[in-house]
Structure prediction request, 385 residues.
Amino acid sequence: MAEQKRDYYEILGVAKGASDAEIKKAYRKLAKEFHPDLHPGDKVAETKFKELNEAYGVLSDKEKRARYDQFGHAGVDPNFSPGGGGFGGFGDMGDIDLGDLFGSFFGGFGGGFGSGGRSRNGPQKGETLRTSVTISFEEAAFGCEKEVTVTRTETCDTCHGTGCAPGTTAEICSVCRGTGSVRIQRGGGGFSFSTTAPCSHCGGTGKIIHQPCKSCGGKGTIRRQKTLSVNIPAGIDNGQAVSLRGQGGAGKNGGPAGDLLIAVTVRPHAIFHREGTSVYMDQPVSFVQATMGAELEIPTIDGKVKYTMPEGTQPGTIFRLRGKGIPAVGGRGRGDQFVTVKVQVPTNLTRAQKEALSAFGVAMGEAQEENDPLKGFFDKHKKKK
Ligand SMILES: [Zn+2]
Ligand SMILES: [Zn+2]
Prediction:
């Protein structure tokens, strides 16, 4: 269980009945406040940011929010816990647009500095890349390592991102003085105002490259295919994502590289079905086994385990195998396996079998008189008439 987890509404600082817009607004405000790129090396900010993403992932999703309101953390089973390990798990990102988030606060920086207005060539975080992997039910339960191949922009090895041929340097654009943008006066008389536009002399880069790097043609980046190994944590569920920080596109002008988000699809299993950390399955038993009890061998994700089914087990009985479910991400124990007894009615009986069953029926007849729950009902019914 996850008792020590903080309340999602409390994390976002909103009331229980907050509207979607209020939740989004609160999230964006706090995400900017705690973003790890603004607090390099600050573990507290990093943890808060993860906590925030988890809370928002649930509260921004109608269905998950409803389940959370009703059942608390257990209802949404947030497998991506804060402090889950080396990689930052964002869980189900929903419709959070990281690109938008980064764009808005880097833009904010540009506007705040200097008198030339918004800088067009300030640091920019690289592109967020998305890919997916499909894994088996067991791989999701126990974790696995997978390879993914992405095509991304990488910083050019030859010029280290400057775009200049080795031994040469770029010249700061004399028109925009390196800002990449120019001021344009519009209007006239008392209504004159100025706006900014990209500098046409340098193409908005703020620099003039006289001898472009031959490897990248002066762009400073190269498109390249890269195969990466991804550690998928034990307990991950279908539809969740793993984030590899800094494995997305190269940043621009000294900005950090983007992230790579890997959506995980879990293939359904032939006999097991999963809800959070619980595993469900149907166990067929014969009519004789249900009646007389039996020593069963039940399949689990760990292999077969013995279970003594008591005599007189009714169809649809559910028994629980503790700790045989899915491990919780982050190592907080394991769920249970729930087994539903499915009694098989025998078909295609031989003559001898039918006779034995008839004899059994006759023998049951006398006992049935005593035990029939409907007997009293019919008796009363008769009396009324
Ligand atoms: Zn280059
Ligand atoms: Zn320029």
